Amino acid sequence: MKKLIALAAIAAATPAIAGHHEDKANGHSKMLMAGLLGTNQVNGGDEDGRGQFMAWPDAEGQLCYRLMVSNVDAPTAAHIHSGAAGVNGGVVVGLSAPTDGKVEGCATVDADTMAALWAESGAYYVNVHNAEHPAGAVRGQLMSH
Known about the structure:
Number of strands: 11
Helix content: 10-25%
Number of helices: 2
Largest sheet: 5 strands, antiparallel
C-alpha cells in the first residue's frame, strides 16, 4: 500500500514538471521516476522514510533531477545505483543530498549510461544515505515515462 501511495504522489506531480524536459528529437517527454521508501532498502533502511525522485535530460545532455525526502534524518549522500529490486549495486550517478528535504540539480552523465537509464530503467535505483543508515535510508527502483 505504501508503494502505491508513493507512486500516486509521483504521478500527480508529473504534469507540473512535464514541460521542463521535452525530448526535442521526437517531441515526446522523457522522465525517470521513483518512489522511495525505507522498507525498500535491502539491509534495512529508515522504516518511516519516504521520498520521490524525478529526472529528465536537459538540452546540454545532462540528467536534471528533483529529489525529495521526508521522515529521514540529515541526508549525507544520494545516488543512482545499478541493481534490480532487492539487489545492491554500484553507483552510476552521483546526486546532491537533499539536506533540507529536497534538492534540484543536474548531473553530468555519459551518453551510454544516459541511454541505459531509459532503456533499462528498472535495473537502476535511487537511494539516499544518512549517518544512521550509511547503506541507505530510503530506496526506489527507477521507471521511465
